Amino acid sequence: MKRITTLCLFLSFTIFASAQDFVEVNNSAGYADQTFYALGNNQSILANTDWDIALTAIGPADAGIHINEAAGISANSLALYVAPTDNFEDPITDFTPEEPLLNDELSWDYGAFNNVRDLGDPFDYGWGVYNPDSHVIEGTTVYVIRLRDDSYRKLFIESLSDGAYTIRHANFDGSDEQSITVSKSAASTSGLILLSLETGVAVSEIQAATDLIFTRYSTPIDDGSGNFLDYTTTGVLSAPGVLVAEAVGVDPISVDYQDYENDFQPELDIIGYDWKEFDLNTVQWTVFEDRAYFVKDADGNIYKIVFIDFEGSATGTTVFQEELVAEVTSVEDPSSAFNSINVFPNPATDYASLVYEIKQAAEVSIELYSIQGQQIQQFQSRANSGLNAIEFNTSNLAAGSYIVLVRTAGEVQQQLLNVQ
Questions:
Q1: Are 359 and 334 in contact (CB under 8 A)?
Q2: Domain check: are 168 and 274 in the same one?
Q3: CB 208 within 8 A of CB 44
Q4: Cα–Cα–Cα angle for 11, 8, 384, nearest 5°?
Q5: Same structural domain for residues 221 and 183?
Q6: I want to staple 64 with a disulfide (CB 3.0 to 4.6 A). Which of 56, 307, 312, 397 is the partner?
Q7: Within 10 Å of residue 412's Cβ, how many Cβ atoms?
Q8: What pLDDT, in 10s, does the model give residues 149-166?
Q9: pLDDT tens digits for 267-324?
């Protein structure tokens, strides 16, 4: 066996009192724009009409597809439906729109196009099914999409193969068919391919790695009587790879992120829309003063976000205070228990092996988690001094990204595992 050596690193947090910056995000009157925001106040502003669907390009195996809900679910907005046929070649002669498919704002792994999937089948992505022999997600579902000009077209995600999505759309009778192939390498720094069906081109104007997206989206809201109805609201979604912890009922100035270290979550809408409310008496928006949000970026740096003002549709302006409260630095750790740690094959199909070299014999816990933080497998073992190996069965895992944690007394190492 070839010996694999890696530089052992550990992550340490530098905690300091940094400047508290006031940031203004302007989504324009009527929320005509969206802002893709990188912590540190780097903003990329897109018109709602710049893109139609977002395809994930987070890793080699994800296949989430979202519809752009920023214009709402009324006239002059996009809407997605399941077609009355599962064969794209069939003409559609009789179609009556019913309830549209919406993004669920829980994970970038699954959007509106994924919501018809069989939850009991890990290979089913809704729009298509993963073929373990060819390693291709093959399209199975035909959709109808209503465009902004109120016209309708049939749409089919034909495949995700070798890191490229192929999409076909046409008039109901099959005329004016368009085919688009876009590689995951075309993804913006948000980890998303923002695609215009009209031009067939992915948006490229996002300049910095996105952490937060200021936008409109549809979400179920209690109408006051216990019934949840889909409303279009304005809020903040976290980008792929970003974690958020919410602190409510606190002094936002003095609250400490260390009290919320176990509360960081990957759901898109942890910040969401409910940091504000509309006062019918004053006919004004009010921002709650008893909450703060801790945002951990993809590198592990932690920022505190406190909302100050929201001006509503008149200007689309949001004002908040941003403070870097913990910065991650990577330094060589000669005291680490490990000399090396690696996972292969990566990406894996039927199995994956964790190979690690430990300096001294020790009790070791090895854990496999989904990217959402759900524990899937765990092993307890007595590791011998030197090279050790543990094999995971990955044949029953859905394609996607997973985290392997290796724990010894006082130390945790992690590796990213991709499953095809």
A1: no
A2: no
A3: yes
A4: 120
A5: no
A6: 56
A7: 12
A8: 999 999 999 999 988 999
A9: 899 999 999 998 888 889 999 999 999 999 877 899 999 999 999 999 999 999 999 9
Q: What pLDDT is attached to residue 231?
A: 84
In a domain, 158, yes or no: yes
Cβ–Cβ < 8 Å for 37, 43: yes
Distance, CA of 324 to CA of 39 (rounded, Å): 9
Phi/psi for 61 (5° steps) reads -120, -5
Q: What is the 3 state secondary structure string of the chain? A: CCCCCCCCEEEEEEECCCCCEEEEEECCHHHCEEEEEECCCEEEEEEHHHCCEEEECCCCCCCCEEECCCCCCCCCCCEEEECCCCCCCCCCCCCCCCCCECCCCCCCCCCHHHCCCCCCCCCECCCEEEECCCCEEEECCEEEEECCCCCEEEEEEEEEECCEEEEEEECCCCCCCEEEEEEHHHCCCCCEEEECCCCCCECCCCCCCCCEEEEEEEEEEECCCCCEEEEEEEEEEECCCCEEEEEECCCCCCCCHHHHCCCCECCCCCCECCCEEEECCCCEEEECCCEEEEEECCCCCEEEEEEEEECHHHCCEEEEEEEEEEEEEEEECCCCCEEEEEEECCCECCEEEEEEEECCCEEEEEEEEECCCCEEEEEEEEECCEEEEEEEECCCCCCEEEEEEEEECCEEEEEEEEEC
Rounded (10°) CA dihedral 368, 355, 328, 62: -50
* Residues 185, 314 within the same domain: no
Please give the share of the chain, as a percent, with pLDDT higher than 90: 51
Q: Indicate the number of domains in the chain.
A: 3
Domain that holds residue 361: 337-419
Give residue-wise pLDDT tens across range 213-225.
Answer: 999 998 887 777 7
